[in-house]
Amino acid sequence: MDRPTLPLAPLRLAHATATSCLGHGLAAHAAALRAGRSGLKPCDFDIVDLPTWIGEVPGVDAVNLDDAPVRGLDGFDCRNNRLAELALRQDGFAQAVEQAAARHGAQRVGVFVGTSTSGILQTELAYRRRDARGALPADFWYEGTQSNASLADFVARRLQLRGPSFVISSACSSSAKVFATAQRMIAAGLIDCAVVGGVDSLCLTTLYGFHALELLSQEPCRPFDPARKGLSLGEAGAFALLERVPARPADDDVLLLGCGESSDAYHMSSPHPEGLGARLAMQEALRQAGMRAPDIDYVNLHGTATPSNDMAESRAVSALFEPGTVCNSTKGATGHTLGAAGGLEAVICLLALRQGFVPASPGTREPDPAIAGALGYRLDASDAELDFAMSNSFGFGGTNCSLVLGRGDAWMARAARSVGP
Q: Which residues contact 228 (CB under 8 A, 6 or more apart)?
């Protein structure tokens, strides 16, 4: 017998923001993605000595949590929460959340955010200050910094929200899965709207960890390129405010139409060679949105630029989508922001849908004909009338998530056609 499922209605991305190495806020990201500009630079982070490139966000160290409008946040001071604060200050996002809380009540607004390493850099720094007995310094607070729960706790306190809040940490799909979590919580009637997104910051653990896995490129990453040699790590903070769709959404409203999740558990750090879990996630997102693959105008690929990931994703996409489907990866612009990637790339899709353009794929010089020959992989930005987009986020251990987003006018037109005269 099939299990009963909640009716998962579309949700409106009522507000959104993003901060990455491309800049602070939506305007900076749109300009960079249209110009094909990358934010990557040779690695000079902290004491790291590795021949690789990184996407470092400017201005994070200058953020002072004491300057936040909410008191008592100083104990949360770490690079990850400073990056979260920097992101929350952009595009009037915090003010939009404040208005939502006034409409619905602070207890009816959830906070669901993703991260992979949270504030582990703060622990790395604390270990350098151990005393003669090896004890960590007294001012180090694990719960407010390194703990994955720190991010949700900080964001909820900063925005003065009292609804359910927690962190999802499923590697690179973390801040895509939070959209699905919010969707279910709203459908269940537990909340009326939600702050979703993700924040991940650079640290020695990820840089040296991915180096140990032999996954770092010594040049700017080249997604889906025949000469791709690995990923470039980045950091980012991205947020969206999800609410129920009004009776008549605005034409350029961007809606969350479908979420697909899967867990193929094929290998701890390698994708299924045929992209099985990726394909299942895309299929479920399409099913929930009530769409078929040809309805999607643009696919923002996970596209990490590692040989195995791009090959597996290409096979999964080719198994579902028609030849020539417009797609590419934007990680050559931002770097792979790990737990923030899903949220960041959902916001990139929002910009593409709202402003009518296909983002560029900097770093990629030519699509690999062996894996992307059947795909309509785009190198350069171009104006385009996009109605529906898919964003893919696939994590270690086969924790996969795909999101389907669409314009308000396209969704209304599609609904009208389905009803008929």
A: 217, 221, 222, 305, 306, 307, 310, 368
List CB contacts of 393: < 8 A, sequence separation 6 or more: 172, 173, 175, 176, 177, 302, 341, 342, 345, 400, 401, 402, 403
How confident is the model over 35-59, as pLDDT tens digits? 999 999 999 999 999 999 999 999 9
Q: Report the DSSP beta bridge partners of residue 175.
A: none
248-253: list long-range contacts, CB under 8 Å, 24+ apart. Answer: 248/412, 249/12, 249/408, 249/409, 249/411, 249/412, 250/408, 251/407, 251/408, 251/409, 252/353, 252/354, 252/407, 252/408, 252/409, 253/12, 253/13, 253/407, 253/408
Own/partner long-range contacts of 73-76 (Cβ < 8 Å, ≥24 apart): 73/154, 73/157, 73/158, 75/141, 75/144, 76/144, 76/145, 76/150, 76/153, 76/154, 76/157
Residues of the chain with pLDDT below 70 are 1-7, 266-270, 419-421
Task: Give the residue numbers annotated as catalytic, written as ranges.
Answer: 172, 302, 336
What are 354's two structure tokens? Answer: 């709202």
Question: Could you give the CA distance from residue 155 to residue 161 in angstroms, rounded to a whole number?
Answer: 8
Identify the structural domains of the chain with CATH numbers, from first to last.
11-419 (3.40.47.10)
